[in-house]
């Protein structure tokens, strides 16, 4: 299992990963498997501490990294609610989402990285580093590396230290984790579109892995107006249906979610960004775990190839491979403008909007759509 940080005497690693994130741990595991001496540094006390994500995995993420079934809950569909309470159920043949026990997954990923040979140091905050020719010296830790990978989140210290691109556009999300309750239909991610409560994004209720998660996120207006998520108002509106006020609160979390797309520059000599630090989060859906798995693994492999076999520069390689999110960035700006609830009520279940929902939730796969037009399940007006 991961061990706590202790001071080293200028211990030279092939690769130091800053951030025991999804991307960081996958990269460390890959690089260690390929023969590199790897260290991971993280300010947290242990891998599962201070989790700031709902932890929903799309099927593509599962295809990138096998996750223990005991730490997940399969959810086959999406129930999408309009502001007036009408809802549509969406399914796609063979497709599903996984709700996760995210702290437990982080601990499992940490154990996997250690089993591959990586050293994990917790309580080791990154304060800065200096690059001298072919070595990166980590300030205050007496550690140096032949390569440094920044996987340290939306407000990356590695990016700031080396003058790399930094995220500048964010959603602000808040979430409360409750005890598991049978009042939430376990077959659906419950997604609420409402400009009054969640302008620029949505609210959600998730039948999680041994818990229930409810939250919402908002985007700042493209015209510069600052918005704040009002979780209490959202919880009050949905309580008559889910009765979450009767449930024990387990955890609360909040934080920024990058939504501006890929940052630039991504790298400098012997330093590369990945995961949220690189802006590898869909600007439209705010999903980033699949990209963390896919490109964390690719970054770890590219760095190993560069250091062991004189392969191409990892920064140049990843700049070509990382997605640009062109269409999704455009759609993010449209959605951030927050159309009125009257417009949403009139258009959300029209054929073009249903097709768009299918594309967003099921990655272009065919979907079965069931429109509910009976008594509104929820009214958020």
Overview of this protein structure:
The chain has 381 residues and is an alpha/beta fold. The chain has 2 domains: 179 residues, 3-Layer(bba) Sandwich (FAD/NAD(P)-binding domain); 177 residues, D-Amino Acid Oxidase, Chain A, domain 2. The protein has 10 helices and 20 strands. The strands form 3 sheets. Strands 1, 2, 3, 9, 10, 11, 12, 18 and 19 form a 9-stranded mixed sheet that branches. An 8-stranded mixed sheet has the order 17-13-16-15-14-6-7-20, with helices on both faces. α1 runs parallel beside α6. The longest helix has 21 residues. It starts with a strand and ends in a 9-residue tail after the last strand. The N terminus and C terminus are likely disordered.
Task: Outline the secondary-structure elements.
Elements: E1 3-4, E2 11-18, H1 22-33, E3 38-42, E4 57-58, H2 59-64, E5 72-75, E6 77-81, E7 87-91, E8 97-100, H3 102-116, E9 119-122, E10 129-132, E11 135-138, E12 143-150, H4 157-161, E13 170-178, E14 188-192, E15 203-207, E16 212-219, H5 231-242, E17 249-258, E18 267-268, E19 271-273, H6 289-309, H7 314-321, H8 326-336, H9 341-347, H10 351-362, E20 368-372
Parallel strand pairs: 1-9, 2-3, 2-12, 3-9, 6-14, 12-19
Antiparallel strand pairs: 4-8, 5-8, 6-7, 7-20, 10-11, 11-12, 13-16, 13-17, 14-15, 15-16, 18-19
Helix pairs in contact: 1-3, 1-6, 6-7
């Amino acid at each position: 299992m991961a061990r706590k940080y202790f001071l080293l005497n200028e211990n030279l690693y092939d690769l130091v990963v800053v951030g025991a994130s999804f991307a960081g741990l996958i990269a460390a595991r890959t690089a260690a498997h390929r023969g590199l001496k790897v260290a991971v540094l993280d300010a947290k006390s242990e891998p599962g501490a201070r989790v700031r994500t709902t932890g929903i995995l799309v099927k593509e993420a599962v295809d990138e990294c096998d996750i223990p079934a005991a730490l997940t809950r399969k959810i086959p569909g999406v129930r999408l609610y309009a502001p007036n309470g009408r809802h549509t159920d969406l399914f796609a043949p063979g497709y599903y989402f996984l709700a996760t026990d995210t702290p437990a997954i982080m601990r499992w990923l940490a154990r996997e990285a250690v089993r591959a040979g990586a050293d994990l140091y917790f309580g080791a905050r990154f304060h800065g580093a200096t690059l001298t020719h072919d070595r990166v010296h980590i300030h205050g830790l007496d550690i140096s590396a032949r390569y440094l990978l920044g996987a340290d989140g939306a407000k990356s210290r590695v990016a700031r230290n080396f003058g790399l691109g930094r995220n500048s556009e964010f959603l602000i999300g808040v979430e409360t984790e409750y005890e598991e309750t049978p009042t939430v239909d376990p077959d659906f991610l419950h997604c609420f579109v409402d400009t009054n409560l969640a302008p620029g994004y949505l609210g959600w209720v998730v039948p999680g892995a041994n818990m229930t998660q409810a939250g919402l996120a908002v985007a700042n207006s493209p015209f510069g107006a600052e918005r704040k998520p009002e979780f209490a108002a959202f919880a009050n509106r949905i309580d008559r249906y889910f009765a979450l006020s009767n449930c024990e609160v387990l955890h609360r979390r909040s934080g920024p979610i990058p939504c501006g797309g890929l940052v630039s520059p991504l790298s400098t000599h012997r330093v590369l960004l990945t995961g949220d630090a690189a802006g590898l989060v869909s600007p439209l859906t705010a999903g980033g775990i699949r990209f963390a798995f896919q490109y964390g693994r690719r970054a770890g492999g590219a760095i190993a190839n560069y250091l062991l076999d004189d392969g191409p520069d990892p920064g140049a390689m990843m700049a070509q491979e990382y997605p640009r999110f062109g269409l999704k960035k455009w759609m993010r700006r449209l959605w951030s403008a927050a159309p009125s609830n009257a417009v949403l009520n009139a258009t959300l279940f029209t054929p073009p909007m249903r097709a768009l929902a299918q594309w967003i939730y099921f990655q272009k796969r065919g979907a079965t759509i069931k429109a509910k037009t009976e008594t509104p399940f929820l009214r958020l007006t």
